[in-house]
Amino acid sequence: MGFFDRNRENVTKMGYDDSRLPPGQYLTERFPVLHVGDVPTYAPGEWDLKIFGEVHSPFTLSFEELTALPAVTLTTDIHCVTKWSKFDTTWEGVSFDDILADAGISAPTGYLLAESHDDYTTNVPVADLVGGRALVATRYEGQPIHPDHGGPARLFVPHLYFWKSAKWVKGLRFTQTDTAGFWELRGYHMHGDPWREQRFTGD
Question: Quick check: pTM over 0.85?
Answer without folding.
Answer: yes
